[in-house]
Amino acid sequence: VITLRDLEKEQNGNLNMPRLANFYSDCTLISLKMYVEKLTVICFQWNVGERHLLSEVMLYVNRLNTEESVIPYEYHHFDFCPTDETKSPVENLGQVVFGERIRPSPYKIEFLKPQSCVVACTKTYVGGDKSGDAQLQLLKKGISLNYQHHWIVDNMPVTWCYLQNHDQQYCSTGFPMGCYVRAHEICIFNEKFDKPHTYYLSNHVDLKVTYHTVKVVPRSIHHKDPNKPDCSGKDPVEIPSGNLKAGEKLNITYTYSITFEPNNTIKWSSRWDYILESMPHTNIQWFSILNSLVIVLFLSGMVAMIMLRTLHKDIARYNQIDSGEDAQEEFGWKLVHGDVFRPPRKGMLLSVLLGSGTQVFCMTLITLAFACLGFLSPANRGALMTCFMVLFVCLGTPAGYVSARIYKSFGGEKWKSNVLLTSMLCPGVVFCLFFVMNLILWSKGSSASVPFSTLIALLALWFGVSVPLTFIGAYFGFRKRPIEHPVRTNQIPRQIPDQSVYTQPVPGIIMGGVLPFGCIFIQLFFILNSIWSSEMYYMFGFLFLVFVILVITCSETTVLLCYFHLCAEDYHWWWRSFLTSGFTAFYLFIYCIHYFMTKLNIEDTASTFLYFGYTLIMVFLFFLLTGAIGFFACFWFVRKIYSVVKVD
What we know:
It is built from 18 helices and 21 strands. By secondary structure, it is of the alpha+beta class. A 4-stranded antiparallel sheet has the order 7-4-11-12, with no helix packed on it. A 4-stranded mixed sheet has the order 9-21-18-19. The radius of gyration is 31 Å and the shape is elongated. One of its GO terms (biological process) is protein localization to membrane. One of its GO terms (cellular component) is membrane.
């Protein structure tokens, strides 16, 4: 911490800055805190051997994206001012997979040094030049699709704040690269720009650095003389919709202005709050939680009634052996005690899906716990995705163990096939879908395309870490004795009587996913917004609570339907318990289609294919998660009720 008195000492040559620089591992850029009336952030750069301070503040540019296309692009893709990309910060695994590409910008900022109408660069396009025409067409395409800039200063997003509904301020973490005015429309950042079928480019930005926030106002200004820019001009840069005529020139000068404004009301630790407070979601979140709790209370009441009243009466009646005549009158779930633990068909596949579902469950639980503790805040870019992938790889052991234990309880003997399928099937499905999506992004030159070296690294994590850990888990699972069931299984299967409509498999499975989905659909809207609309997601406490409610709802729904089916003397509960809660994923897919049709404006085929490709990955993982939750809840319930009943 440096105070004003320390700075005065430094001017007299008494402050040992090289020693301070060495303390930060010889870094040339040191982030320090300085007291100027109130707490203020400033970057000092110290060059060893020199006796002065340089207050350069780095402005970084990130990828550009839009709600009208799933394909993001790097900053240089649209032929903006060139930058030296050799000084780009290193991205983590999550940032690379998500397509973030952070690069230095051509905009130079010095702390507490206002600048007005500074030229960043000038681009000239000449009609008839194929290269220039192609770049200009690309620029117009980006404007028409409403691609958004995403800039970063001091790890804070540069925000564009504007009024919504004439009274409420909304701060977006991106601002448009321009606007295309169609018939009877106006420009999004200036209502005066209303010439039909014209492209207006945001070639000037007013950066307002308010300690500790950075805000931007995009403007379109036509500089008649690039050497003497005039930022007070009202004429915008107009790009015609057609091609330039042969020999016709179009000069675009990119400029920027910087102002500094101290803010004594915002502390450095709470500098993100103004972005989060502009998102009026908290009341909706509490409504979502209350809605989910009502469903949970309803289901808990039903389960409690069954467990405490119906089951208690059933067990008491079944255990009263008064006469042979009474025994003949037995009915309900006790009659199938000799078949209820009969191994299901396709037991190998079920055990593999349960192992992978356990892996996804543990991954989700640990990630949400870390997020609630603040380790995965929006300030840690890419940390959430990195945590997901690392945990999924490292949790191969519980997947192999659970799969082996379940498969052995089914009487399976092909342990090699079980281990290989557990380690390869579900991760292989996700990787194949991801690889196909990546091929499309490669072909489009998108920043979201994962480099070949990163794909090799992901494969190395899969085969070098996840697969061996799965084998270790399966080894311990197969070494243990098979799970002992509370009742013996008859040699001859019992015939299942005709079922009513609501106890048949398909209607029960379809009904089973409704209530769990009802608990999450409001939270789902915000999650999809953060993925596809670049909105910031920070409400991990709400999300963790919703996850707990989802687990409870899936468990109770599956137990209820399982009890009804057993009372109807249908003992095929293994697959049904997995599919009943897993069918929630189908409703998730339907909701994603609804979101695509109503919220996004995607029209091109490639973006549509990419959207549904990534949606399938999300739906598949959610299917494994909810299916495993329902199965193990039902497995515990069935073992519990048959362990307390007397069987001759």
